[in-house]
C-alpha cells in the first residue's frame, strides 16, 4: 500500500502536495482550537485560519524552495503563538512538514542549521508567550522535540533515497559489466573459430593446390606417380572436409547429435602432416630434442596448428624443397622451430597487409602463455620459432580442446 502511494505521488506530485497541504491545514485549525486548562483562548479563529492557510499554501513550493517554505511556515506558527494560541504539535504541523522536506531535499549541514534556528525560535516564543503556567522544562524540551522529529524523519528519507540510488547505480554497472563481458567472450570465441577455420582451410587447400600442380606436371612423364598423388589429393580434401565439419560443429544447436565430437589434433598427428607435405614435393624432417613430455590439450593443439600453418606458408609462399621441424623439450617449455631452405627473396609469410597466417600463429602462442618469432634467415629461407609452456597455469583464453 505504501509503495502504491509513493508511486502515485511520484506520477502526480502536484496533486499529492495539494492533498497533504489540505490535510495539514485541517490539523492546524484543530490545533488552534485547543487551549491549555485555565488559559484564556482567543475568541476569533480567523487569524489562525489565515496564518495556517498561508503556511499550507507555501508548502506547495517545498520542492523548489524548501528553505523559504520553512521560514514562512515557521513564521506563521510563531505569529499564531504570539497572538495567544497554544503552540502545540497540531498548530506546528505545517512547519514540521516543511522541516521534514527540507531535511529530505537538502544536505545535512543545511538541515542542522535550520533545525537549530527552529529550536531556538520556538523555545523563545514558547517561554515568552506560553498561555499556560507550564514547567520550564516542558516549554523548552517540547518545541525542541517537535522540530527534531521531522528533521530526523527527513534525514532518514534522504539516506534511504541515496541508498536506493546507490543500489540502482551498482545494478546498472553490474548489468553493463555483464553485457561487456558477454560481448568480449563472443568476440574471443569468434576469433578462435576464425583461426581454426583459417588453419584448416588454408592448410588443406594450399596442400591440395600443390598436389594438383605436381600431378599435372608428372601426368605425361610419370603417369603412375601422378595417379598416386591424385589418390593422395582425394585423401587431403576428405581430411579438410572432416576437420571443417568438426570446427563448424561448434556452432551447432544444443541437442544436435548429428555432428560428432572428434579429438582435437595434436603433435601425435605430425607424421600425417609431414607425409601430406611430402606428396606436394616438400621433404619435411622432424627432429626431437630432449625428453618428450606430455602436453596439456590446449598447448598440444596450439603446437600442432602452428606447425601446420608454418608448413602451409612454406607450401604457398616459399620456393623450398626441404623443411626442418625441430621440437626441443625442456623441463617446462617446448620450443618449436620450423625452418625452410627457400630462396632469400621468397617469404614464408604473406606480404604486408595480406593474410592472417603469422598473426594467427602469434595469437595462438600468446593464448597459452607463449611467444612466437618469425623472419628471414641470414643464409636464406624463413624461420618460425615459438616457445610454449608445457602446462600453462593462467592463460587468457586457452583453446577449447574439443575444437
Describe the protein's architecture and organization:
This protein is an alpha+beta fold and 403 residues long. It folds into two domains: 2-34 and 41-134, no CATH class; 179-251 and 262-389, Histidine kinase-like ATPase, C-terminal domain (Heat Shock Protein 90), CATH 3.30.565.10. It is 61% helix and 9% strand. The chain has a five-stranded mixed β-sheet with strand order 1-2-3-5-4, with helices on one face. Strand 4 and strand 5 (382-389) form a beta hairpin. Helix 1 (2-11) packs across helix 2 and helix 5 (93-105) packs parallel to helix 7. The longest helix is centred in the middle third of the chain and has 83 residues, at 136-218.
List the helices and strands and how they pair.
Blueprint: H1 2-11, H2 13-33, H3 46-58, H4 66-82, H5 93-105, H6 108-129, H7 136-218, H8 223-248, H9 270-279, E1 283-289, H10 297-317, E2 322-329, E3 333-340, H11 357-367, E4 371-376, E5 382-389
Parallel strand pairs: 1-2
Antiparallel strand pairs: 2-3, 3-5, 4-5
Helix pairs in contact: 1-2, 2-3, 3-4, 4-5, 4-6, 5-7, 6-7, 7-8, 7-10, 10-11
Amino acid at each position: 500500500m505504501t509503495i502504491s502511494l509513493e508511486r502515485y505521488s511520484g506520477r502526480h506530485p502536484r496533486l499529492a502536495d495539494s492533498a497533504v497541504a489540505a490535510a495539514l491545514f485541517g490539523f492546524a485549525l484543530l490545533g488552534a482550537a485547543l487551549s491549555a486548562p485555565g488559559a484564556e483562548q482567543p475568541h476569533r479563529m480567523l487569524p489562525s485560519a489565515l496564518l495556517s492557510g498561508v503556511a499550507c499554501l507555501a508548502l506547495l513550493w517545498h520542492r523548489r524552495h524548501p528553505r523559504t517554505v520553512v521560514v514562512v511556515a515557521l513564521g506563521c506558527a510563531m505569529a499564531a503563538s504570539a497572538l495567544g494560541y497554544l503552540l502545540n504539535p497540531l498548530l506546528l504541523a505545517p512547519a514540521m512538514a516543511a522541516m521534514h522536506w527540507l531535511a529530505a531535499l537538502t544536505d545535512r549541514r543545511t538541515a542542522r542549521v535550520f533545525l537549530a534556528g527552529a529550536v531556538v525560535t520556538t523555545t523563545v516564543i514558547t517561554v515568552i508567550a506560553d498561555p499556560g503556567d507550564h514547567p520550564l522544562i516542558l516549554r523548552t524540551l517540547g518545541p525542541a522535540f517537535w522540530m527534531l522529529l521531522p528533521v530526523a524523519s527527513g534525514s532518514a528519507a534522504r539516506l534511504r533515497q541515496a541508498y536506493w540510488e546507490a543500489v540502482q547505480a551498482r545494478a546498472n554497472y553490474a548489468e553493463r559489466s555483464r553485457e561487456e563481458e558477454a560481448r568480449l567472450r563472443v568476440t574471443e570465441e569468434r576469433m578462435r573459430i576464425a583461426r581454426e577455420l583459417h588453419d584448416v582451410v588454408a592448410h588443406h587447400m594450399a596442400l591440395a593446390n600443390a598436389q594438383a600442380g605436381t600431378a599435372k606436371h608428372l601426368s605425361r612423364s610419370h603417369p603412375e606417380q601422378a595417379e598416386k598423388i591424385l589418390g593422395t589429393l582425394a585423401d587431403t580434401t576428405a581430411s579438410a572436409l572432416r576437420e571443417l565439419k568438426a570446427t563448424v560443429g561448434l556452432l551447432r544447436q544444443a541437442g544436435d547429435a548429428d555432428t560428432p565430437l572428434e579429438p582435437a589434433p595434436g603433435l601425435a598427428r605430425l607424421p600425417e602432416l609431414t607425409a601430406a607435405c611430402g606428396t606436394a614435393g616438400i621433404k619435411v624432417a622432424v627432429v626431437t630434442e630432449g625428453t618428450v613430455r606430455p602436453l596439456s590439450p590446449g598447448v598440444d593443439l596450439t603446437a600442432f596448428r602452428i606447425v601446420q600453418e608454418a608448413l602451409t606458408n612454406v607450401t604457398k609462399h616459399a620456393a623450398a624443397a626441404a623443411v626442418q621441424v625441430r621440437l626441443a623439450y625442456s623441463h617446462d617449455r617446448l620450443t618449436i622451430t620450423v625452418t625452410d631452405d627457400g630462396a632469400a627473396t621468397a617469404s614464408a609469410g604473406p606480404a604486408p597487409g595480406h593474410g592472417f597466417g603469422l598473426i594467427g600463429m602469434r595469437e595462438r602462442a600468446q593464448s597459452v602463455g607463449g611467444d612466437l618469432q618469425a623472419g628471414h634467415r641470414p643464409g636464406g629461407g624463413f624461420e618460425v620459432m615459438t616457445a610454449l609452456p608445457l602446462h600453462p597455469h593462467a592463460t587468457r583464453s586457452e583453446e577449447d580442446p574439443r575444437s
